[in-house]
Design brief:
The structure is a homodimer.
Chain A lengths: L1 H31 L6 H8 L6 H4 L3 H23 L6 H18 L1 H10 L10 H15 L7 H20 L6 H14 L4 H7 L21
Chain lengths: 221, 221
Amino acid sequence: MAEAQEVGRADRRRARTRAALIGAAQRILAERGSTEAAVLDITDEADVGLGSFYNHFTTKAELFDEAVLDLLSDFGAALDEMCAGMDDPAEVVAVGIRSTCRLAGSRPEVARILALSGPRFLIADRGLAPQALRDIRRGAETGRFAVPNPRLALALLAGSVLAYLQMRLSGNQLTDDDADDLAATVLTTLGVPAQSAVDVAHRSLPVLAAHREPTNGGELP
Amino acid sequence: MAEAQEVGRADRRRARTRAALIGAAQRILAERGSTEAAVLDITDEADVGLGSFYNHFTTKAELFDEAVLDLLSDFGAALDEMCAGMDDPAEVVAVGIRSTCRLAGSRPEVARILALSGPRFLIADRGLAPQALRDIRRGAETGRFAVPNPRLALALLAGSVLAYLQMRLSGNQLTDDDADDLAATVLTTLGVPAQSAVDVAHRSLPVLAAHREPTNGGELP
């Protein structure tokens, strides 16, 4: 019994350390716009010992990958909650595009990580890309979309959003309204008739649920 | 006279050193997929003295930016040559998309640099992005395109191409045919009627002229 408690405590401590490292990597990505940081910088930022890094990750790249996937998955889960009651696959895709683009205004630190690291995760098996691919396929199955090649459709959808984020973060004067126009245009490339696409992309946007507390218990900067 | 020759020689030597540094940075980007290299790594690769780096660049970031812009401008110039005789702005845009996507197969080392660093240059004042924006505007002026917001159109066009490159380089099974389909789809977002877009995106593709010799006199790996 006492032994089980001991194990539980050790597991929790281990999970806390891992989460602290991931949180630190996310902050470094958001602040520096780059993964150029020494392991010591990361463990200092995470407030854990240098050695504990290697209990959890083999390389810095592995940590940064986890940090980005963690963020993408959290945001994806929030999107799924927003769209839980929606019947129209076109609206689900539109909400995803519009909400992701709006991060540039509402959570620029998250948007910056997405714009910076998102491209590398377009073929990841978790995160936003497979979620978008799932939504594209759903629309194709129900006949709402006409999509000869879902992966190519994903390239257009995700690439457009990433480029939008990058340009808007660089002060390119793109707006939330432009995000809605982009969503409408992307829907037409999925075979949605133009007027329907415009309508769907301008429906009232569900509020993005408060993000889960970051696993390190703190907030991104 | 002798003095002028001396100056000319010094200028040429200076230009050669700069070009060698840029070539080295391009090879490092292509090989490592990252800008994480020490200045000494770069000067070794360029076969120039460590100190000469700082005669040309203040920071590594400045060199890598130049290296990417140099590559983008060279490729842009080659595209312009290919399209010199074309009247139809839609064909010019299609050739740009199709040729850039094909780099993933024909010059993967260039494609890798584009996919990696291209996003940061979407709002640069030279390179491929302003060239694509110019082509979009030309089509809008002649009435071939209907584009309410050229910058948003650029986000969709360039973002799609960058995502295509990234996905194809990651082994995502996208093909040259998919590149043509992507070009057709992007044209429809610029207001080109669907059938015309398909026709234009499947015209015979001009051969990409041999790239100018890289300024360091060597080839990318």
